[in-house]
Amino acid sequence: MNPEAAAFTITGVSIGYPGRPVIDQLSLSPLPPASVTTLVGPNAAGKSTLLRGVAGLLPARGVVRLGDLTLSGATRGAWTRRVGFMPQTLPAGARLLALESVVAALAASQPDEGLSLSQSAMRARAMATLERLGVGGLALEPLDALSGGQRQLIALAQAIVRRPAALLLDEPTSALDLRHQEQVMRVARDLATTGMMVIVVLHDLAMAARWGSHMVVLSQGRLAAEGPPDQVLTSALLARVYGVDARVERCSAGRLQIMVDGVIDHGSSRSGAPPPSLPPP
Ligand SMILES: Nc1ncnc2c1ncn2[C@@H]1O[C@H](COP(=O)(O)OP(=O)(O)OP(=O)(O)O)[C@@H](O)[C@H]1O
Q1: By alpha-carbon position, which residue is closest to atom 11 of ligand 1?
Q2: Is the CB of 89 under 6 A from ligand 1?
Q3: Which pTM does this prediction carry?
Q4: N or C: which end of the chain has fewer CB within 10 A?
Q5: Of residues 85, 33, 23, 81, the one with CA closest to residue 219
Q6: Residue identifier of the C-alpha nearest atom 2 of ligand 1
Q7: Structural domains of the chain ordered from first start
Q8: Phi and psi, residue 113, nearest 5°
Q9: pLDDT class of 267 with cuts at 50, 70, 90
Q10: Other CB atoms closer than 10 Å to residue 128's CB: what's the count?
């Protein structure tokens, strides 16, 4: 168990952009160490804004706490060493090799760690992280030359190489094939079993239900629901938050499946009809 393992709490948090409030006074139940929470919600609900705010990349009001450390009270270095963040996309134009970029992410945490890994130890840890994600073969490739999915895996390696106590992953599987999706979610779960608190933004609700023990649903910057996925995911929630007519069923393997029957328009239900503003086919 990670000795830094501690609950992650978000209380009365508001985050936004100049002239554009997005997250409004959000409070969640404490997210315990050794857990995977999935963060879901419609486009523009504020999921990325929330993660970026609690990662310390956007100004946030309210209290974000990891154990006895708070976002507002910690230095940026102390917070980012303990709270790892994987953005939706890697910044464009990075000229580094993949391995160098992971070493750089690790090196950035060194002064705060109170220990100084040698260059070769950092390279070894970075290489092991790439191999764990199945992309050791990309180590000497320039980031600019990688596919979208490959860049996503390198971004994940950069986030986890520091071994943070809390890990925030923004749609880590959006560009990945089925095998890599499975691999990434397994890594997230394995990291949680070492004591890490992991939050993962996902659009695939069945995947979110499968991999998370706790689900948070955001809608228009506010909390729509949270709790165990099989209690949160109901037809009523999907209608209210996503505007779809859908059924939630358990398949023979015991996993939740979502079957969407149509879009809810003007009070119609299960019509499957296009919105009235569209021309007839
Ligand atoms: N840099 C920015 N400046 C101003 N507004 C922004 C900025 N980034 C996002 N927004 C706005 O904040 C709101 C929430 O966006 P956010 O990206 O957090 O949503 P999301 O739930 O992650 O969406 P998606 O599922 O589409 O990725 C949107 O209305 C968006 O237009």
Answers
A1: 44
A2: no
A3: 0.89
A4: C
A5: 23
A6: 17
A7: 8-233 (3.40.50.300), 234-281 (no CATH)
A8: -80, -15
A9: low
A10: 13
